[in-house]
Specification:
single chain, 400 residues, alpha+beta, FAD/NAD(P)-binding domain, eight-stranded mixed sheet, 19 strands, FAD-bd, 4-hydroxybenzoate 3-monooxygenase, FAD/NAD-bd_sf
């Protein structure tokens, strides 16, 4: 008994904290390998399935979802894109990703991936505990780690062979690592993104990344009826100062070109929010019986469209590693998880920083940096080699 409430003790092979893309994908992959898991999530199912996040899937992420049996709706409803557009100095330039790399990206919202994964886990009798409060991870230095949590007042103890923290940058999993073990690398950018989701048919079928004197803008989409658009704003911007009319006016200014047929399509704004821009890496991504994945250990600015894709890559590595451990008694992949994952993480960090610094304005604070950014954009749109490098990173490198 604890505090007058029943304490329930449970056991699984892998306890997963966080029902985002990484945690759910890992749970699904473990199921395919015959490994048991329990996923704990502090939010309710409704919230998890409807929080709008990333929407660009690399070729490798699409392949992973398809090959693991999750891709039916993605392949039916996702929108494959073979190019992106870079816009600056009053001109738009097409980067033909598929022509340059043989691969492409697919636009399919993160919330849709999460819905598909939850549906599959429940269909497979997988255990997802929503609204798990007061989650705490303990004993990761022992052979018997435990995750404690509370549901509807009842205390639970979930014991496992391993714990995987997929609970985001503000999650509790990292707290289980002793002081002095983890090193954090971080950069905060002097701007944020104001994003809207609008019930408006997109006027484009390929994303437009625009650098304008007034700041960056992105024309993206989620479906044939829904547009996703972003504006660069100050990091301390007051959202109340951005009524819909002002947002649309600024999008028209930054995205439309003289004499060009593309005109931003307006419609009812379904969501609006401001996202700070930062880069973060926490090393190592594992400590004894605890493994960390996704936003818990790395965050990238959304300019490079890498966040969810990195999370899925982490889950794939861990799925293979646990399969090797439980299936053949081999620990090499588990022991090397952090080292292997960080190669991809740092490549994505560099690409995301590069795209961000090249496409955003810095308020004229450093004219030298401004000219460097324009030079990079000119080079990326005139050099096949440079454009190929951009395309390779954007669609997702096969080997990192």
């Amino acid at each position: 008994m604890a505090g007058g409430h029943v304490r329930t003790q449970e056991r699984t092979q892998v306890a997963i904290v966080g029902a985002g893309p990484a945690g759910l994908m890992l749970s699904h992959l473990l199921h395919l390998h015959g490994v048991t898991s329990v996923v704990l999530e502090v939010r309710d199912r409704e919230y998890v399935e409807h929080r709008v996040r990333a929407g660009v899937l690399e070729q490798g992420t699409v392949d992973l979802l398809r090959d693991s049996g999750i891709g039916a709706r993605l392949l039916r409803e996702g929108q494959p894109h073979e190019a992106i557009n870079l816009q600056f100095a009053g001109e738009r330039h097409r980067i033909a990703m598929t022509e340059l790399t043989g691969r492409r990206i697919t636009v399919y919202g993160q919330q849709e991936v999460v819905k598909d994964l939850i549906a599959q886990r429940l269909a497979d009798d997988g255990q997802i505990v929503f609204e798990a409060a007061d989650v705490a991870v303990d004993g990761v230095d022992s052979d018997d780690p435990v995750v404690r949590y509370r549901v509807e007042g009842a205390q639970h103890e979930l014991r496992a062979d391993f714990v995987v923290g997929c609970d985001g940058s503000h999650g509790v999993s990292k707290d289980a690592v002793p002081d002095g073990v983890l090193t954090t690398y971080e950069r905060t950018y002097p701007f944020a993104w104001l994003g809207i989701l609008a019930q408006a048919a997109p006027a484009v079928h390929e994303l437009i990344y625009a650098r304008h004197d007034r700041g960056f803008a992105l024309y993206s989409l989620r479906s044939p009826q829904v547009s996703r658009l972003y504006l660069q704003v100050a990091p301390d911007e007051d959202l109340a100062q951005w009524p819909d009319d002002r947002v649309w006016a600024e999008l028209h200014t930054r995205l439309e070109l003289d004499g060009d047929p593309v005109r931003v399509t307006e419609g009812p704004v379904l969501e609006k929010g401001i996202t700070p821009m930062r880069s973060l890496v926490v090393e190592p991504m594992q400590h004894r019986r605890l493994f960390l994945a996704g936003d818990a250990v790395h965050i990238v600015p959304p300019t490079g469209a890498k966040g969810m894709n990195l999370a899925m890559a982490d889950a794939n590595l861990l799925g293979q590693a646990f399969d090797s451990w439980y299936g053949r008694g081999e620990r090499e992949l588990l022991d090397g998880y952090s080292r292997t994952a960080l190669r991809r993480v740092w490549r994505a960090q560099h690409f995301s920083w590069w795209m961000t610094s090249m496409l955003h304005t810095f308020g004229g604070a450093d004219p030298y940096e401004e000219q460097l950014a324009l030079s990079q954009l000119r080079y990326a749109t005139t050099s096949t080699a440079y454009a190929t490098s951009l395309a390779e990173n954007y669609v997702g490198l096969v080997d990192v």
